[in-house]
Amino acid sequence: MVLVRYGEDMWERILKMAEVEELSFDPHEVYTEGTITRLAESASKVVNIPLDELMNENGRYFMNFLSQYNYDAVLKVLGRDLRDFLNGLDNLHEYLRFTYPKLKPPSFFCVNESRTGITLQYRSRRVGFISYVQGMITEIAKVYFNTKMTVEMVNETNEESVWNYVMRLHFDNKSYEARDDHMPVPSEVFFEVFPFNIVFNRGLKVVKCGRATQQAVPGIQGSLMHEVFVLVRPLIEFTWDAVMLHTNNVFEIAVVEKKDGKKKREVSRKRMSSMTANAVKFRGQMKYMDQWDAIVFLGTPILYTKNEIMRDVSVMANLGLYINDLSMHDSSRDLVLAGDQQSAELKEALEAVLNLSSKLFQEEAKSRQLEESMCKLDEEMKRTDELLYQMIPKGVAERLRSGTSAIDTCETFDDVTVLFSDVVGFTNISSRLQPLQVVDMLNGMYSVFDELTEKHKVYKVETIGDAYMIVSGCPTVTKFHAAFVAEMGLDMVKNIVKCVDPTGQTPHLRIRVGAHSGMVVAGIVGLKMPRYCLFGDTVNTASRMESDGTVGLLVVSVS
């Protein structure tokens, strides 16, 4: 949405602020929730739009994104009208789980339906997406059902890290009507058609169950539902009232394993995933039966392998089930048989994928090595540039790289300021020290001066022995050259106290500093060891100002 409405430059600013590397979204890639949240918060600041409003717009725009990957085809057939669509919204994620097996979907269910709208309850472990959901639902109502909808937030709570939002959706619910009663069906026929049924009363006691259910879960008759099963979906408490409110939702229940001879009565949402990973699961519908004053669960076993991708007959064997236990009116039998027949082909395909993955891994390793080599090359080039810029000004060096000859870099500068400094009594000090001590002394002093050159925007021309030469006004022309050099000279005198005299004759080194302004000729001299040199009377005069100057003072000429 940001790219389309605000442009690529704005998107790059958002990525930088969110500390996210350049990326292009892949619909089959799994991204961390933190990434999406950081991007949204950064986008809100960059485009100057409130976060809730931005997320709402993004939810609306997401409908266009879905159409690019044919998910809109599913949305178009999810419900004949808007009320049916909203009642079946929770079932959409069952379809998406085939594409995204590790998906932990939110839960949607409708209550208090009337002629003027529906109350929608949205539950999710993800925080900050309520405005996104509101924008998506209102856009669906507008695009697919030509219906204007307004959303009113009724309540917002958090329990065990699950966010619960209650919204009233106001729209013209013209398709709302009372359902006519259907023809009665004898109970023996009903239980034969649905072998995996479970009938329980208001106290959640199992009063009847199908023959196949008894095979899969022995001893279930007479037990309490919440003692035998944990409710995986939807995200509600396993009570009579809660189930009655959500009969339009797909229910998924898992058998709770026995522990220390007792069944687990209370299961937190955080532990549910680990407890139900390998448990017997059923998926189906909860239907209230008026004549029985009971709820019947009409489901089928989830015959998946651990990764929930392929049906497996070995799962049936572990459950003590057989093909003829499955219903004939749905596709359960066909799916199980087809899955077993395709297992050999899938194994071959898996081996091919593993071989391809191995090759890709090798290529990726080579790519990483190349990337590391390129990074090292960049580091070496930066070091080379730093060394080059110490001998030659950056602007002059760039001209040489572009093909300009050394002689063509020579220029006349009418107004520059040159400064010289040297150490008082350097010859006497050097005679008392070892060569390495002299080098350490000069290195310490030059390090102090080099930091000052960056501060005062002057260029260090060269150092010869204890002499230090700087210039301002070339190669970068400035009318403030004299002021820059004067401030530099005063700072040199002030900071020389940081440089200790290693002979102990004085507390610190002492220097003379002299400066002069005038015209110079500057350019590159030398081939094997090229240097940026200055020539002219200005250089000679500045040197004399230093040599004839006073210790601890900056001496300048009248010019």
TrEMBL record:
InterPro entries: A/G_cyclase, A/G_cyclase_CS, H-NOX_domain_sf, Heme_NO-bd, HNOB_dom_associated, HNOB_dom_associated_sf, NO_sig/Golgi_transp_ligand-bd, Nucleotide_cyclase. CDD domains: CHD. Residues 417-546 form the Guanylate cyclase domain. Keywords: cGMP biosynthesis, Cytoplasm, GTP-binding, Lyase, Nucleotide-binding. It is found in: Cytoplasm. Belongs to the adenylyl cyclase class-4/guanylyl cyclase family. This is guanylate cyclase. It comes from Macrostomum lignano.
